[in-house]
Design goal:
This protein is an alpha+beta fold. It has two domains: 34 residues; 170 residues, Umud Fragment, subunit A (Ribbon). The protein is 19% helix and 28% strand. Strands 1, 2, 3, 4, 9, 10, 11 and 12 form an eight-stranded antiparallel β-sheet that branches. The longest helix has 31 residues.
């Protein structure tokens, strides 16, 4: 075989190998490090709109062990209590229809994924007044939330609970229209999928999440 033909075949083979490696790396990155997520509801408005696409960083939580912080926007599995048409708290006398936020989730996690904001972490005391998180007795600075209509009955949970260690308390920015920890409780950090860090669609809304 002429040297030129051997060189051409070698180049084609190397290119094919590089292409396979590139595809494998892309699949691994999507599966392990970064995951696209479509916003399914208005619970995070005005920060995130229905149909927005965000990128979720799964690497820092799983590999680096970074614990979520207040203000982080996370994709996570809620408890199974969130699956019911009327959310179920893991502790009687709390959650929806009461003045006390749910302090304990049901034991099993749901297969669903939700996206909400961390408003309290393990050891924090949390209540809700006028739709605002009251953390450790102080109203949080939350310029990003939508106004909460008192007539919805979702704005006030004035009786404090303490978030267990290793858990986070999640709320949507649209406090009057969000199914969140107020009703089904804080979630274990182990149920967190990752943190949303960028909106990539639609083009007009490209930016940090």
């Amino acid at each position: 075989m002429p040297a030129l033909q051997r060189a051409q075949r070698s180049t084609i083979f190397e290119t094919a190998i590089l292409l396979v490696i590139a595809i494998g790396l892309a699949v691994a990155l999507q599966a392990f490090a970064a995951k696209p997520y479509r916003i399914p509801s208005g619970s995070m408005e005005p920060t995130l709109h229905v149909g927005d696409r965000v990128l979720v960083n799964r690497f820092s939580h799983r590999v680096l062990g970074h614990d979520p912080k207040v203000g982080d926007i996370l994709v996570f599995h809620p408890p199974r209590g969130a699956d019911a048409s009327q959310p179920v708290c893991g502790q009687g006398g709390q959650g929806g229809g009461t003045q006390t936020p749910c302090g304990k989730p049901t034991a099993e996690k749901s297969s669903q994924t939700f996206i909400k904001r961390v408003v309290a972490v393990g050891g924090d005391r949390i209540a809700v007044k006028g739709g605002h998180a009251i953390r450790n007795g102080r109203q949080a600075d939350e310029p990003f939330i939508a106004p909460c209509d008192p007539s919805t009955g979702t704005c006030d949970f004035p009786q404090e609970i303490t978030v267990p260690k290793g858990y986070v308390f999640m709320m949507g920015d649209n406090r009057g229209n969000s199914d969140d920890s107020r009703y089904w409780g804080p979630i274990p950090i182990s149920w967190v999928v990752g943190g949303a860090f960028a909106t990539y669609w639609p083009p007009a809304r490209i930016g940090g999440a």
